């Protein structure tokens, strides 16, 4: 499934939109239309939300075991369809085929773990007399109950994994879902829903609405029928969404500018391995990509030389050849990345390697002696460009890290665990990796962005919690 017009999914049916309009999806490296998705109408959004509420009312009474039985089938279908889904992901977002397959299998694992986590999430009971003057005949039973209809909005770069990472916890928690994929990712999202539809889920429980965020995004976000929003995407979009959303629980996973902090005592071989993978996998189109290196001046020359040697070995080219550095998602993104490179060089950065472009393909670029007046020191490239910022102390590395508007993750490379914790305790990020690349996985770990990188927490257990609320029942027993 790639070529042809694809339908949206509502109340258990695949339908063409009444709008009569479709959106052509063009491959970022084939440079040809690979399929079309529906541009749904606001009336169809209303219908999807209405069906979701009707389905959720029944789903809330379905046992965890039965909920899980449907999702196990979904996971099995994804694994069964992994080759065809991986091909769609590759063609649609330019992800290397092997990485695309890993994304699908990782998603099935995610779903299975979510089922188990939900089945083992228990509530608690509380005694009245544990509070001064309280009676022991009062017992509170605290349970978690679903919020209702969850709006799941996902980004282009993990069009299956980051969508299921919202849908699976929502369903296991007893919610219904309205799913709005990234437009450049909607074919992959549609394929994922095809797998879900084969699981025989009750109709109306998951509804796929395709359409540009700029057209229907605000309408869905502001819709009074939405009870919770789980959003993953850019910081600008997330901030806009937070302003338009009504009073509903909101989880935002946004952009990042993760630093790789290399202390003078670091194991440079390991640091280089982690930085190369962290910065250039999928052309750096990962929120958790290492997007700047803060290196102690004493080891900077050696690190830069080692990085250059490894960068020049990177496979650059088509995702069909499983290249590490592939064409970026669109021309606008490639223009932005090239602009950052040009700006830095014009302001005095040293080009170590790269600064070469073929259409959307930006060759991996290493810039040394980057300073704070250069855009690349602060902007999120979402592309294969790595700025080297030289520092003279841990304190300077902490200060520069914290000056960023972002706060997703950070990596610290050092042999001194005490120094690592000293730095980790001072930097304002969601997660710190010690002697490892910045990354979201494994998916059961809490995943959080602070400052401009997000609000709320993901990670399987936390996602389930965020899509539920406490419900307290107090027993007043006879004295
Ligand atoms: P994006 O342009 O912000 O789009 C994200 C999603 O928001 C898409 O589904 C988009 O739909 C939708 N959207 C756009 N305008 C909207 C509106 N007014 N209301 C509601 N939804 C709207 O991000 P992207 O380019 O897909 O992904 C790249 C960005 O996401 C990067 O900044 C990256 O760091 C971030 N990201 C963060 C994480 C994380 O876990 N922290 C993970 C992955 C990516 P359309 O596609 O139709 O515009
Ligand atoms: O940008 C997607 C984000 O979730 C990164 O995932 O596993 O590549 O760190 P990962």
Question: Could you please describe the fold and organization of this structure?
Answer:
39% of the residues lie in helices and 23% in strands. The chain contains 14 helices and 26 strands. The protein has two domains: 8-254 and 454-472, Aldehyde Dehydrogenase, Chain A, domain 1 (3-Layer(aba) Sandwich), CATH 3.40.605.10; 259-450, Aldehyde Dehydrogenase, Chain A, domain 2. The strands form eight sheets. A seven-stranded mixed β-sheet has the order 14-17-18-13-12-20-21, with helices on both faces. The mean pLDDT is 97. By secondary structure, the chain is an alpha/beta fold. Helix 3 packs antiparallel against helix 6 (186-197) and helix 9 (268-280) crosses helix 10. The radius of gyration is 24 Å and the shape is globular. The chain has helices at residues 42-59, 64-80, 82-93, 97-119, 161-172, 186-197, 213-222, 235-244, 268-280, 297-311, 331-346, 394-403, 417-426, 460-466, and strands at 8-10, 13-15, 22-26, 33-38, 124-127, 138-146, 149-153, 176-180, 206-208, 228-232, 250-253, 258-262, 290-296, 350-353, 357-358, 361-362, 365-368, 385-391, 406-407, 409-413, 431-434, 447-448, 450-451, 454-455, 457-458, 468-476. Bound molecules: NADP nicotinamide-adenine-dinucleotide phosphate and SN-glycerol-3-phosphate. NADP nicotinamide-adenine-dinucleotide phosphate (NAP) binds at residues 153-157, 162, 180-183, 212-214, 217-218, 221, 232-234, 237, 240-241, 253-256, 287, 380, 382, 449, 454.
